[in-house]
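JOB MANIFEST
job_type = single_chain_structure
chain_count = 1
residues = 170
[input]
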Amino acid sequence: MKRAQQGLGDFIARYSPEIASDLRAARKHLRTRFPRGYELVYDNYNALAFGFSPTPRASDVIVSVAGYPQWATLFFLKGTRLADPERVLQGSGSTVRCVRLQPRSVLRSAPVQALLDAAIAPHAAALEAAPRLSTIVKSISARQRPRRPGGVAAGVARAKPRKRTRASAK
């Protein structure tokens, strides 16, 4: 477990200090909300994401937090089913809704806590039956966008721009 935590620390360290701090804080908070189940980690092309689920299946993730170069975002994977009287949820997709965690205190706000309660409630029995929270790194993309604004992804070389030819300019 200690080795896995070191790897996660390396993933997060590729972000600016501010975003890294936001990700650590959001992850810590969500781990208290999910003492049982699975934390699924995806170090993808676009973002580093931590999903919380009663099973090790991605399709069962309830909420996730993802880091982008300029902010962290909390995703509700079945967000369209949640009552949102304070209108804090963003997005227009058919299922997912999100809350940008800027400032970081948004995560601990009453409206977001109510949304977390509502998202977790239908899964209470499955979470109670799940083992103590464990972390599983599900995927690490070989190619990734830069994790810092205007930067190059750590350890990943950028592709050279293609030369424009007459044919490609048309």
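[summary]
The two ends are 54 Å apart (CA to CA).
The chain has one domain: 2-156.
exit_status = 0
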